[in-house]
Amino acid sequence: MVDVGNKTTDNLIGGHPYLVRTALKGLASGDLSLRELLKTGPTEAGIFSSHLRGHLKMLEDFPELGTAMRQVLSSSEPVRLKSEESFRLYSRGLVVRVQNEVVPRCNLYRLYFGDRLEV
Predict the structure, then answer these.
(1) What gap in Å lies between CA 89 and CA 59, rounded to an integer?
(2) Is a pLDDT exceeding 90 seen at residue 58?
(3) What is the Cα–Cα distance from 6 to 75, expressed in whole angstroms?
(4) What digits encode the pLDDT tens for the residues 18-55?
(5) What does residue 73 show for φ and ψ, rounded to 5 degrees?
(6) Model's pTM, two decimal places?
(7) In the chain, what is the straight-line distance between the N-terminal and C-terminal CA atoms, in Å?
(8) Rounded distance, CA 103 to CA 29, Å?
(9) How far is CA 96 from CA 30, 34, 50, 87, 91, in A?
């Protein structure tokens, strides 16, 4: 975890293996500063844009999953979804389980999808 003021990469990407690898690659190459990563990461101008847009397309193609994700994003507490919706969002890595409820996998997803899904 790298700390920049009150923001950290751990808070943004939550240890997600692909996101960590992508962030480290961008930082190590010098193409990206940590401040840029934290600022642009949850946007379509950031290093994760392709990854985020792919998930957004799926949420748009399956409206029931988009609605379920909106429910998750609109709550600061874990949310109980229908079992099928919970499983599908979990299997795509968008949420993590807290007993029989779910929360966004990382703050990157909360920020990006909250904006793009207008939560």
Answers:
(1) 9
(2) yes
(3) 22
(4) 999 999 999 999 989 999 999 999 999 999 999 999 99
(5) -70, -30
(6) 0.89
(7) 28
(8) 32
(9) 32, 26, 21, 10, 9
